[in-house]
Structures are given as C-alpha cells and as structure tokens.
C-alpha cells in the first residue's frame, strides 16, 4: 500500500525535501511512504505530471510549505468590483492597496492574474542564499536576486511548479475518492482546488489579532480548536469539542469550497479543519499533526481508508 507525500523545494540548493516526521507517521501505519515531487516546466507540465502520478497511489498526504499563488483564489476584479469595494478599477494592479473582501481591512492585494509567462520570467535568476521564515517547522533556502513581484509581497516560498502539481493532485484525488489528508498548506490546496479562497494573511486581513505561527518546539501545543460534532475529524481523533493543537501558518481559509464542511475552528474563528462528508476520507487540518503523538489517529485513519480502497 503506497501513500504519497508531497514535497517542498529547497530552491537555493536545488533539492526537494519533506520533513522526516511525515515519513515516520506514514511508515508507522504499515504503508509505504513515497515522496511526490513536482517537475520543472510550469503549471501545465505539472498538471500533466499529476495525472500520471495519481494512478500509483492508494492514499495521499498533501504536506505543509509555502503559499499558493493568489492567481488561484483571487476573484476576477471585473466580476467582483462591488463585493471588493474597489472604486478605481483602472488603478487595480499588483501592489496596490485594497480592502479584504470579507472583513474590509486594507491589505496588499493582487488585483489581476499575472500571466504564467510573466511569473516564470520573474522566477528565473539566482544569486546568494538567504533563509526565509520556517515553513512547516523547517527553514527553506530560496534563490535570491530575482525581480520583485509586488502582488506576491508578504507571501512565502511561492512555487509555480508545486502549485500546478498539488492543485491537480487534490482535484483528481477528490474526483477519484482517493483517501487524502491535507496538512496546513495542504488543507488550503484542497479548499482552493475545489473553488474556495484564502486570506493572504490572517493578521493583515483583520481576521484575528493572534499570531498563528509558533516558535519551536513544534510538539508544543499553543491553542485549542473546537471540533464539529458528528464530523469525520471527531471520529478520527477521538475527541469532542475542545482539542489542543500546534500552529505554524499565517494564511487561512476565507470562503470554504462548496463541497467542504468546516470540521474545526479556533477560538478566534479561524477555520482549522475541513472535510467532504460525501467522500470516504477527504480531510484537511490547518495544524501539524505529524509532530504530535496524540494526533497519530489522523494518519492511522488515512492508512485504513487507503487500505480499504486498495483491497476493494
């Protein structure tokens, strides 16, 4: 039984990596963990790559990491002018200031879809190495010296190849009833690919005054979430109501995809878990259960669903 785990690009060093905690949790279930990496070539090449990869899997973990490019979840400005409260549509462009479409808070905003070519050209260029803030508990080393992209201001480790690969993997997994666990970014990928949207920064969007990015150790518990009664998540973790979690994210779900239900929220109302009740196992959590022994039930349940599908 094979469970795939998506990876993060260490750009400056030119290698893909995944935290060993993911691998160990999957292996502990008796499944074989296989790392799933995007390829060079942009979003279209990686969507095709995902369509080849998906056939080898019995289950899928979409791991944490950098931010999804806003082109995949920012609404078209011409169709959403009133909702976004934008007076000067002509001035709407990358780097301008507008208001969060849900809270009204002023935030940096990508007002139009940057073309794949423009984005790819901006992602060329290499230089010295610097350390970005920790992503899913590890530092990521990006290549520097490329031209700035204003609409990506404040976003972390945006990767066109990874976005194309994982969004298509999640879409296909949902379509084919492939058991899927999304973690942090992975939950956001599941929501976006099915038609949901994100807050590009919870604090700057005025969603919460709390910072949701803890410092090490990551096995420490920093806040509670409330689990929805009767949810798949409730049965998987064996807990009802308040549940202690860790936290390593700055973005969060804004509009929930139509087919997903909220399975948990934090006390400041941030969406902490989503699931599709129409699927055998399609569940995403915003925290990082791979660091937490009490949360191993998430991986055990994924493996059980994967085994059942493989044996069907």
Automatic annotation (TrEMBL):
PROSITE patterns documented for this protein: GATASE_TYPE_1 (PS51273)
Keyword Hydrolase: yes
Gene Ontology MF term list: hydrolase activity
InterPro entries: Class_I_gatase-like, Peptidase_C26, PuuD-like
Keywords, comma-separated and alphabetical: Hydrolase
PANTHER family reported for this sequence: GLUTAMINE AMIDOTRANSFERASE PB2B2.05-RELATED
Name by which UniProt lists this protein: Gamma-glutamyl-gamma-aminobutyrate hydrolase family protein
Organism of origin: Adlercreutzia shanghongiae
């Amino acid at each position: 039984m094979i469970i795939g785990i998506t990876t993060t690009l260490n750009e400056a060093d030119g290698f893909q990596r995944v935290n060993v905690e993911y691998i160990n949790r999957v292996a502990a279930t008796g499944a074989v963990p296989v790392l799933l990496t995007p390829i060079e070539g942009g979003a279209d090449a990686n969507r095709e790559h995902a369509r080849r990869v998906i056939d080898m899997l019995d289950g899928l973990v979409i791991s944490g990491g950098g931010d999804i490019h806003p082109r995949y979840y920012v609404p078209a400005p011409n169709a959403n002018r009133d909702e976004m409260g934008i007076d000067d549509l002509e001035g709407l462009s990358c780097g301008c200031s507008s208001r969060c479409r849900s809270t009204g808070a002023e935030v940096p905003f990508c007002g139009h879809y940057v073309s794949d070519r423009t984005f790819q050209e901006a992602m060329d260029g290499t230089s010295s190495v610097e350390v970005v803030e920790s992503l899913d508990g590890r530092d990521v080393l990006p290549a520097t010296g490329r031209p700035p992209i204003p609409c990506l201001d404040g976003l972390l480790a945006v990767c066109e190849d990874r976005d194309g690969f994982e969004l298509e993997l999640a879409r296909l997994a949902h379509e084919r009833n492939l058991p899927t666990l999304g973690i942090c970014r992975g939950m956001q990928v599941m929501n976006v690919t099915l038609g949901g949207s994100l807050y590009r920064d919870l604090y700057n969007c005025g969603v919460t005054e709390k910072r949701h990015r803890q410092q090490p150790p990551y096995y420490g518990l920093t806040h509670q979430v409330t689990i929805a009664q009767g949810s798949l998540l409730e049965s998987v973790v064996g807990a009802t109501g308040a549940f202690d979690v860790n936290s390593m994210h700055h973005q969060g779900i804004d509009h929930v995809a139509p087919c997903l239900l909220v399975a948990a929220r934090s006390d400041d109302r941030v969406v902490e878990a989503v699931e599709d009740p129409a699927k055998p196992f399609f569940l995403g959590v915003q925290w990082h259960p791979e660091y937490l022994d009490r949360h191993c039930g998430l991986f055990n349940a994924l493996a059980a669903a994967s085994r059942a599908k493989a044996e069907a």
